[in-house]
Write a structure and sequence with these properties.
By secondary structure, this protein is α/β, with parallel strands linked by helices. The chain is 44% helix and 18% strand. The strands form 2 sheets. It has an 8-stranded mixed beta sheet, sandwiched between helices. Strands 11-10-9-12-13-14 form a 6-stranded parallel beta sheet, sandwiched between helices.
Length: 417
C-alpha cells in the first residue's frame, strides 16, 4: 500500500516538535508499505531534509520515508492571522499533490483542520478517488472558539462547514482522545469506523536508570526541579505558573526551580514578568530541545508540569504529548485540568491534581511534592512508567494505526467491487 501522508508539522526525533507522524510512518515502512509525507517547514521541527528549496519546496528520503517539504516558515510565535495564511498555503499546495500523485490511500492529520482539504478535494474528483483516513488531534473549531482566538461568526461557520465536509468525505477516522471520538459521532460517523489511538510514550527510547542530577545552568544539587516542556502559548496557563512561583518565593522556598523548556508567542511576556517580579533565580527559561537531548535530561526532573488553561473542551478533547512523555520519563506528573488525563493520573496514583483556577493550589501542590522523600517520588514515577508501558507504548499504538489504515483500505476496495 502506498500512503500519501499529510501532516503540516512533521518532525523527526532531531526536532523539538511532536514525532507522532514520524513514528507512524516508520511503522508503515516496517509493515511493508511505502509512505510519502507532505509537510511544511516548522521552527520547532526537523524534517531531515537539508537540501535547498527550489520553487518553494524540497524533496528527499529520510530513513526510508519520502518527504516533500514546503518552504512556509511556520512558527508558534506567529500571530493567529499569520498562522491562518500559512495553513491556507499548505492546504492549497497539498491539494495539488493530492490530485497529481500516485497512491493507494490518503491520510491527513490535524491540527490545523485545513489539513483535511486535500482529502476533501480528492473525493470531489471521481477519477481520483482513493480511500481517505482523517485523524483529529485537536478539537477544531471548538478550541479556538472557546479560547476566544476566533470570534468572527463567518469564520467559525466556515470552519464548521470544513469540519462537516471532512467527516463526510473520510472513509476511516482516528481520534486521539475520548472527546475527539465524541466529536466524530456527533457528526453521525459510525463508531465502527473510528479508532481511538492517543498520543503515546516512547518507552524504548528512555533510560530511567540515569543519575537523578539535573544538569542545566541555574540548577544545583539539592534543587527540586518542576519542569514544563512545550509551547508557551495562550492555551498553556503559564501566567498562573508564574503566580504560583511568586507564592513559593514569598514562602522562602528558594530550593525550588520552575523550569520551562520551549518557545511560543507568550514566552517573551512571561520572561519580562519573571524579571519584573524578581523571580529569575526560581523560574528558568530554556530554548526548545530535540527529543534525543530532552529525554535523558527529563528523566532527572522531580516533577513534570502538565498545564492547560481552564477550558472545558480540553478536559476530554486534548491528548497532550507532554503527559505521555512525562510518564515515559518515570517522573511524577502535576495536572491542572480535570478530564480523562486527570482520571488516568488518579487511577494510577502517579501524580497530583491542582485546581486550574487557583495559583495558590498550584503552588501548594508543587510545594507538597518538593517535601516528599525521594523514595516516594520515585515510586510515584515508577507507577507512571508502568501506565505508559501497559497502555500507551508508542510501538503498540503504531501497530494499531497501521491496522486501521489497512482495514480502511481493504474495506474501501471491497465496496468498489
Amino acid at each position: 500500500m502506498r500512503v500519501l501522508y499529510f501532516h503540516q508539522h512533521f518532525s523527526t526525533r532531531a526536532g523539538a516538535a511532536s514525532t507522532r507522524s514520524y513514528e507512524m510512518a516508520k511503522k508503515l515502512l516496517e509493515r511493508g508499505h511505502s509512505v510519502t509525507v507532505v509537510c511544511a517547514s516548522n521552527s520547532a521541527g526537523q524534517t531531515g531534509l537539508t537540501s535547498r528549496f527550489k520553487h518553494g519546496r524540497r524533496t528527499g528520503t529520510v530513513e526510508g520515508i519520502s518527504v516533500i517539504e514546503f518552504d512556509l516558515g511556520y512558527s508558534n510565535k506567529l500571530p493567529f492571522a499569520r498562522r491562518i495564511v500559512v495553513f491556507a498555503k499548505y492546504a492549497t499546495r497539498s491539494t495539488v499533490l493530492a490530485l497529481r500523485e500516485d497512491y493507494d490511500l490518503l491520510f491527513a492529520t490535524s491540527a490545523p483542520l485545513t489539513a483535511a482539504i486535500p482529502g476533501i478535494a480528492m473525493k470531489m474528483f471521481r477519477f481520483r478517488r482513493k480511500p481517505f483516513v482523517f485523524e483529529i488531534r485537536d478539537p477544531w473549531p471548538e478550541s479556538p472558539r472557546a479560547m476566544g482566538v476566533i470570534k468572527n461568526p463567518i469564520a467559525l461557520s466556515l470552519m464548521e462547514l470544513l469540519e462537516t465536509m471532512a467527516y463526510r468525505c473520510a472513509d476511516g477516522y482516528i481520534a486521539l482522545s475520548p472527546g475527539m471520538v465524541e466529536a466524530f459521532t456527533r457528526k453521525r460517523v459510525s463508531r465502527d469506523l473510528i479508532s481511538l489511538i492517543p498520543n503515546g510514550s516512547d518507552n524504548a527510547l528512555v533510560d530511567t536508570s540515569a543519575s537523578r542530577e539535573f544538569h542545566l545552568p541555574g540548577i544545583v544539587k539539592g534543587n527540586f526541579v518542576a519542569a514544563f516542556t512545550g509551547a508557551h502559548g495562550i492555551a498553556n496557563a503559564l501566567d498562573k505558573l508564574i503566580d504560583a512561583a511568586a507564592i513559593l518565593y514569598s514562602r522562602g522556598r528558594h530550593n525550588i526551580r520552575i523550569v520551562l523548556i520551549g518557545d511560543g508567542n507568550r514566552k517573551r511576556s512571561l520572561q519580562e514578568r519573571v524579571q519584573k517580579c524578581g523571580l529569575q533565580s526560581m523560574v528558568l527559561f530554556y530554548d526548545p530541545m530535540p527529543k534525543d537531548q530532552l529525554q535523558p535530561l527529563m528523566t532527572q526532573a522531580d516533577l513534570g508540569l502538565m498545564l492547560l488553561d481552564n477550558i472545558p473542551v480540553f478536559y476530554y478533547g486534548s491528548s497532550p504529548n507532554k503527559f505521555f512523555d512525562y510518564l515515559s520519563y518515570g517522573i511524577p506528573v502535576l495536572v491542572n485540568h480535570p478530564g480523562w488525563v486527570c482520571d488516568l493520573l488518579e487511577e494510577a496514583n502517579c501524580g497530583v491534581f491542582a485546581d486550574p483556577t487557583d495559583p495558590e493550589a498550584l503552588a501548594n501542590q508543587i510545594d507538597a511534592m518538593s517535601m516528599l522523600c525521594d523514595a516516594d517520588r520515585l515510586e510515584m514515577g515508577r507507577r507512571g512508567r508502568k501506565l505508559a508501558e501497559d497502555r500507551f507504548d508508542r510501538r503498540i499504538l503504531a501497530e494499531c494505526f497501521v491496522d486501521h489504515l489497512e482495514s480502511t483500505h481493504d474495506r474501501w476496495r471491497r465496496s468498489r467491487k
